[in-house]
Amino acid sequence: MIEQPNLDYVDQLAGDDIAFRGQFIEIIKAEFPLEKEEYFGHVTNNRFKETAEIVHKLKHKFNILGMQDSYKLAVTYEMELLKGNQDSKSKFIKVLQTIDEYIKTI
Fold first, then answer.
1. Which of 18, 59, 65, 83 is disulfide-compatible with 74, CB 3.0–4.6 A?
2. Is 88 within 8 Å of 26 (Cβ atoms)?
3. Taking the model in full, what pTM does it have?
4. What SUPFAM superfamilies does this protein's entry cite (predicted)?
5. What is the Cα–Cα distance from 47 to 45, expressed in whole angstroms?
């Protein structure tokens, strides 16, 4: 089962600053779909280096959303891609789908 995203880290950073929290969430909601789209563009065309680069960017979103296991998966997947391997692709896509659904609710 894939871990569920949360805003615990964002809440920790923001403290009582509701405006900052809102801005942080808006950045995630704006950037994630674009980065996900970029990921699929690269992975579909077997551009391993470019796919690894966007996985590198996305893994930080996983960390921000409290998904440490998914972060570790992304680290592994990034290394695989740099070696021309995609063994973790299906697991990574499930994480992207989970986050995609989550950000629609925040």
1. 59
2. no
3. 0.93
4. Histidine-containing phosphotransfer domain, HPT domain
5. 6
